[in-house]
Amino acid sequence: MSALYTGPKVCMWTLDHPNPGSLATYVANGGYEVLKKILAEKTPAEQIIEQVKLSALRGRGGAGFPTGLKWSFMPRNYAGDKYIVCNTDEGEPGTFKDRDIIEFNPHQLIEGMVIAGYTLGAKAGYNYIHGEIFELYESWERALDEARAAGFLGNDICGSGWNFDLHAHQGYGAYICGEETALLESIEGKKGQPRFKPPFPASYGLYGKPTTINNTETLASIPWILRHGGQAFLELGKPNNGGTKIFSISGHVNNPGNFEIPLGTPFGDLLEMAGGVRNGHKLKAVIPGGSSAPVLPADIMMNCTLDFDSIAKAGSMLGSGAVIVMDETVCMVKALERLAYFYYEESCGQCTPCREGTGWMYRVIKRIEHGEGRPEDLDLLMSVGGNIAGRTICALGDAAVGPVHSFIQHFRKEFEYHIAHKKCLVGS
Amino acid sequence: MTLSAESLAGIDKEVAKYPVDQKQSAVMAALRIAQVEKGWLATETIEFVADYLGMPAIAVYEVATFYNMYELSPCGRHKITVCTNLPCQLQGADTVADYLKQKLGIGFGETTPDGRFTLKEGECFGTCGSGPLCLHNNHKMHTHLSPETVDKLLDELK
Predict the structure, then answer these.
(1) Which chain A residues are within 8 Å of B67, Cβ to Cβ?
(2) Distance from CA of B130 to the nearest CA of A (A)
(3) Which of A274, A357, A360, B118 could cross-link with A388 by S-S, CB 3.0 to 4.6 Å?
(4) For the stretch A162-189, what's the b/e string if a residue is b when 16 or more beta carbons lie within 10 angstroms of its beta carbon?
(5) Of B63, B127, B141, which has the smallest distance from its Cβ to A189's Cβ?
(6) CATH topology of domain B5-66
């Protein structure tokens, strides 16, 4: 076991100070200095994007797309309005990091969004906040008021003559709105049903205008990168995986919570930071990147480092960095039944394979769990899954299939036992 | 049917966040505010919101039916929504949900005969590290639930 990380943190450093979420704490520690400098020196957008590219910052919402590259897709000489949108619709089971940024470092997110607005030539920005965290929606609105009063937001920002404003938009209970085009539809006051791509939001986004959508943690990392340089951020992590990252660890650990550590940290270190598997139980399986990421058995996971490339090589996804830990008492059929219900419940209903297929998968897994499984059910599940994946407008279909296929692949014996014996292998 | 001056002022504040020709963007907030005042969204409330924002009533109805925190039928004074998704389940949400059902004598989606409590099953609240969790009337979250803390919470909700 390597020594546990105690180095610099990009987003959660405020927790080492009293009043972590306050404007005073942020400003006293160099907050908003980079924004002032950029506006005073009129730093060219190309130069800012260059630093973001150098940092190897990859999207923290799940897809891991290089942020600098995404920013470079925005049309530079577009005459009309453009928008920047932050995705805080954090509803992927296991993920709870962005809520902590809003609670403990809201001003770094505001500064990141204002800088993004300046760089991309946006007129305004919206932060879409998950419906179930209403108290944080209210606290972020208070932080916006503070920033306006201090001259960091609104008209004539820092005396530069430049105007840019930010607003919060609250979701109200729809997982699908975390998908970027569904999120745009939702801001436009419609059902959150994903759009076909292309056109991509950089050319046809909010209200049909060029729009960049980034995750909360991604945007909150921007001020740190521009203050310390893209190279310094890159060196916090590993090549192609720049920076520290917040990992949300939940399930069967003694101390569930958020831990900000460098990308490339061994999984065993994170487990140790979370107090280890609860009550001295044995690790059975881990979902390393939120509920949509394929599950990995303990022995494979213990050999992984936590970065996009290592987890992908092991057959799963780093995703949003949501690590769900399961010990040997878990029935994998029951666990999968709950995840399958989630995707069935949250499918937006737009594409037939997903709308119908998620229901089929849930009902088949449910009957296996409840002792009514049939010998052909595992083949049926693989077949239904194969008819959803890749046949839908957005990634929710694939996300629903990932757990089903991986649970069966790695824990097939448990499913077969349930079907043959009408009861659970765990504890039998 | 109308909404209180306070609710209307809240809706106006939301409308002001969006471009002048995009009032519809405030529909989710308007329905939320209307629901806080009325307890649930009756058809006449939905029609009022539609008129207020200059939208077809069907478009507002679509939104009200799509997002699961809106209530389209009368609800108890205190709606308790429990997350039972996998991370919360691993941390004991089923025990908490069973305890609530037994103590209130109702299942998910039901209301106590005195109209005091409605119990609902929720999907991920994005706060898994503090589970088991519940929401009170959509907006107040209670974390680290156990039968003891559930007893205390229910006692406070008259």
Answers:
(1) 131, 171-174, 192
(2) 7
(3) A357
(4) eebbbbbbbbbbbbbbbbbbbbbbbbbb
(5) B63
(6) Arc Repressor Mutant, subunit A (1.10.10)
- Contacts with A363 (C-beta within 8 Å, 6 or more apart), sequence order: none
pLDDT digits (tens, 9 = 90+) for B127-146: 999 999 999 999 999 999 99
Q: Is the confidence at residue A3, as pLDDT, over 60?
A: yes
- H or E element that contains A224: helix A216-228
Domain ranges for chain B: 5-66, 78-157
CATH value of B78-157 in 3.40.50.720, 3.30.559.10, 3.40.30.10, 3.40.50.620: 3.40.30.10
In the block, residue with structure tokens 């005396």: A159
- Both tokens assigned to A236: 């916090």
Tens of pLDDT, residue by residue over A15-28, are 999 999 999 999 99
Cross-chain CB nearest to B86 (options A81, A167, A335): A335
- Candidates A132, A142, A207: best to mutate against B (most CBs of B within 10 A) is A132
Are residues A189 and B26, on separate chains, in Cβ contact within 8 Å? yes
